[in-house]
Design brief:
The protein is an alpha+beta fold and 288 residues long. The protein has a single domain, classed as Vaccinia Virus protein VP39 (Rossmann fold). It contains seven helices and 18 strands. Strand 14 and strand 15 form a beta hairpin. It starts with 7 loop residues before the first strand and ends with a strand. 34% of the residues are buried. Keywords: Methyltransferase, Transferase. GO terms for molecular function: methyltransferase activity. InterPro entries: Methyltransf_11 (IPR013216), SAM-dependent_MTases_sf (IPR029063). Pfam families: Methyltransf_11.
Length: 288
């Protein structure tokens, strides 16, 4: 069974502001429904449809990394902790794969590059693609384009080893916030795409910010300078996580266009039935 991916496409902050009132009302309705589901404080279960499994599925969410509301109520981290009991993929991963299938031209024969390899998402994509390349940023001396003893390929997203214009689709999820020179990263991701190829990406995004919030940067001496309390995200290869340099604002769309992409847009999505809870949820998509 095939299920479509429904989203609101926003090509600019102005487009978002024009829809702010109806979106705010929609967010409040969804928020209340989610809070009602989570009111017990125990493990959460409900039935829906998993687009990855292609079948009815039970979704489960725990309270790890829960959020606190000003009134004291707790809400689960729906994005990361709401999983399908059958495939084990969380909300974010299932939605990303679904979007790539429904909106970004993903086919079994597509030549795909993922900026990750040691992750559940890469394993899931291997079930959907015959032509998949993944990589990690390694620090063990593996040369660019080479593989370490564990079979992981090393790539630096700001200086990829691939030839120009070879991939049909690039997926870059929760990576660009950790790349100091993310603009160089965007240029490289465009370079390795064929004309008409698709980029699908996700990263920490603040809908209330016109300009990206810089949390850390590299100073003239090559050292990390923290401009806010250090924030580290989970990393499959490193204990202690990896530093987050920024939370993106709406100017990320301009950065995509300056890198040479067209049709750059933020796609807002939510679905109770598909287990895509949490607001705002978004994916970014652009075309070479």
């Amino acid at each position: 069974m095939s299920v479509g991916f429904e989203s609101v496409r926003l090509a600019s902050e102005a487009a978002f502001r024009a829809m702010a009132a109806p979106l705010a009302e929609t967010f409040l309705v969804r928020q209340q429904r989610q809070l009602d589901l989570a009111q017990s404080g125990h493990a959460i279960h409900y039935w829906g449809f998993c687009a990855f499994c292609g079948d009815r599925a039970r979704f489960t969410c725990d309270w790890h990394a829960a959020f606190s509301h000003p009134d004291g109520r707790q809400e689960p981290n729906w994005r990361e902790r709401l999983v399908c009991d059958r495939c084990g993929l969380n909300n974010r991963l299932r939605a990303a794969l679904h979007f790539m299938q429904a909106r970004a031209g993903l086919q079994r024969s597509s030549l795909i590059y993922l900026t990750e390899q040691a992750t559940p998402f890469y394993a899931a994509m291997r079930q959907r693609s015959d032509c998949l390349v993944g990589s990690e940023f390694l620090r063990d001396g593996t040369p660019p384009g080479g593989h370490n003893v564990g079979g992981l390929r090393h790539e630096d997203v700001t200086a990829l080893s691939f030839s120009d214009g070879i991939f049909d689709l690039v997926g870059c999820f929760e990576v660009l916030e950790h790349v100091h020179d993310y603009r160089a990263g965007l240029r490289e991701l465009r370079r390795v795409l064929r004309p008409g190829g698709h980029l699908t990406a996700s990263f920490p995004f603040r809908m209330d910010l016109s300009e990206t919030l810089v949390r850390a940067r590299i100073d003239a001496a090559g050292e990390v300078e923290h401009l806010a309390e250090p924030e580290y995200h989970g990393d499959p290869l490193r204990e202690g996580g990896i530093l987050c340099f920024r939370h993106f604002g709406w100017d990320i769309l301009d950065a995509m266009r300056m890198a040479g992409f067209s049709e750059a847009a933020c796609h807002l999505y939510w679905s109770w039935d598909l287990g895509y809870l949490g607001d705002p949820q978004c994916l970014f998509h652009a075309v070479r």
